[in-house]
Amino acid sequence: MGGMSTVSESVVNVKEVEPYIVQVTMCDRVHKNTFTHQMSRELILAFQSIATNNTFKAVILTGFDSYFASGGTQEDLLTLQEGNGKFSDNNIYGLALDCRIPVISAMQGHGIGGGFVMGLFADFVILSRESIYTTNFMKYGFTPGMGATMIVPHKLGPVLGPEMLLQARRYRGAELKERGAVFPVYPRTEVMKQALDVARDLARIPRVSLITLKDHLVQQLRKDLPRFIEQEVTMHGITFHQQEVRDNIRSLFGK
């Protein structure tokens, strides 16, 4: 600003919290963990650094306070609406799926839109009772992206998954549990403890065995995801460029 260069504070922290267990914490308090360019870049770098470590056995992905991840920024949604770029230009949705070792999404806070979807790509998902979870793409009038059309029905089932995508409603974690979501749901203050318990179980297992089994368990998802992404980009070409969508992004964002 004013021609001066500023050094941004990191919005993603990577720390080995216990032997063999690495925690990736999204902590952009200013933007409430929306996928700013800085957040996206630092998430990609975090998982690249994890990929170069040959001792880690489990990743815990989490947020801060009452926010897990809040999806795309209003600026980026408007850019996509104008036809300048595609969400697939920046692959943060597949980070947990592509990670060689198991990933635990400790969604202690709200998971909104692409933020919730990104968390669902983890091998273990833990929700909090109080937090809001939504795939709110259709609230704005455009079809879902980020691989949501694949992973949401896969993880939430053939009834609740399409309902979440089509209606774009907000659900508390407790409500998802009542509706039959198979994820463990705990009070927010207990989510990280539960994630660590899972990670400790994994840390007792040989790393090569974890990698070998994860490769086997997610091979179909990894194979199918590019096709779903391609289809989602095609649907965006049909649905994103409506004036109504632009108006909705301007008027409804953050509400």
From TrEMBL:
Cross-referenced Gene3D superfamilies: 2-enoyl-CoA Hydratase, Chain A, domain 1, 6.20.390.20
PROSITE patterns: ENOYL_COA_HYDRATASE
An example molecular function term from Gene Ontology annotations: delta(3)-delta(2)-enoyl-CoA isomerase activity
SUPFAM superfamilies, sorted: ClpP/crotonase
Localization terms from the record: Peroxisome
Highest taxon, organism lineage: Bacteria
Pfam name, any one: ECH_1
Predominant place of localization: other
Keywords, alphabetical: Isomerase, Peroxisome
CDD domains tied to this protein: crotonase-like (cd06558)
Membership in a protein family: Belongs to the enoyl-CoA hydratase/isomerase family.
Classification via PANTHER family: ENOYL-COA DELTA ISOMERASE 2, PTHR43684
Name of the protein in question: Enoyl-CoA hydratase
Organism: Adonisia turfae CCMR0081
